[in-house]
Amino acid sequence: MIRWFIILCTIFLMLYTISYGDESKNSDLEKIGKDFYSMKNLGGNVAFLITEDGVVVIDAGTSLSAGKKILNTIRKKTDKPIRYLIVTHYHNDHILGVDAFPEDISVISSEKTKENISNITMKQRKINIERRYPEYIDNMKKKLENMEDKDSKEYKELKNQIKETEEFFKEYKNTKIVEPDITFKDRKTLEIGGEVLEIIHFPNTHTSGISIVYFKNRKTVHTSDLIFNKMFPYIDYEGGGNSTNWIDALEKIKKMDIDIVIPGHGNVENSKKCISKQIEYFKTMKKKIQNYVDKDYSVEKIKSELNLLQYKDYGKKRLYEQNIEAIYKEFVQN
Ligand SMILES: [Zn+2]
To answer: How far does the centroid of ligand 1 lie from the alpha carbon of residue 89, in Å?
Structure first.
């Protein structure tokens, strides 16, 4: 039972990587301020700050090629050395691109994220390569063969999904998982070229190890996956995620002196509105699910009944259902 549960979780993580990774069609570069940029559509949103003494990068994208795109973009803006790469958490769509960066840069994360990379990412990589990706691709191919209407939207979508997964898998096999070499427990201040960055770890929120990066001089925060702007979030329950702690963390972030928010996924915003919206999403979901749990509803019944129309444009249904499952487990297993 447990074994199957782990397999299902891994498959979900693979889907998750592909789902958020397939934003890679247009890697939009956005200027946040002087010598300060964000990049989206490469997996988790990336940011980089060019200072007198070198460049600091936040997260590295969902693949080796995403990492290379980030590097090329930085090189078009400056020839200053890249000094630090801050890795916010262990999910593939934030760390697989690290392999593209020069070996002499310092890769920073929380202690817990480093532990997650060694214990979860590294171990899953071997099994994913040997068995899970090939099986997953085979199953999709069998499903495609059995589809009768070759002109249907579903057929085309599945065909495209197979192609993207095969391309991703090919590169994934050749990508090294890089472990951070500088770690910190709760928070770390980084001073470089007159800029001050506060890296703050919020335990057991999106994952057990996630950190945000506050650019003090710029009144800007990179929240990593504590914010999914106008899309369904992912609560990594098995990786230590918890929606109650997540809300608490967001309440703390909201009190910070912030003009610009770079979310983990979705658009950059020049206000704190997306923080409030993320809090509201979780509070609404928790309240509704609590009501169902009180009535002894099964998780399947909650999934079929709970239909929050205000979030109908937030993305794929399975992510919404995953949120319901995670919050349900929080209620029944605590
Ligand atoms: Zn994540």
So the answer is: 7
Residue 25 has pLDDT above 90, yes or no: no
Residues with CB under 5 A from ligand 1 (ion): 91, 225
For residue 1, the tally of other CB atoms under 10 A from its CB is 5
Instruction: For the chain, give every domain's residue range.
Output: 2-113+178-279, 283-333
What's the 74 CA to ligand 1 centre distance in angstroms? Answer: 23
Q: Ligand 1: distance of its center to the CA of 87 in Å? A: 11
CA of 225 to the centre of ligand 1 (A): 5
Residue 319 phi, psi dihedral angles, 5° rounding = -70, -40
CATH among 3.30.470.10, 3.10.50.40, 3.40.50.720, 3.60.15.10 for 2-113+178-279: 3.60.15.10
What confidence tens digit (pLDDT) does each residue in 177-189 have?
A: 999 999 999 999 9
* Contact by Cβ (8 Å): 276, 269: no
- The structure's pTM equals 0.89
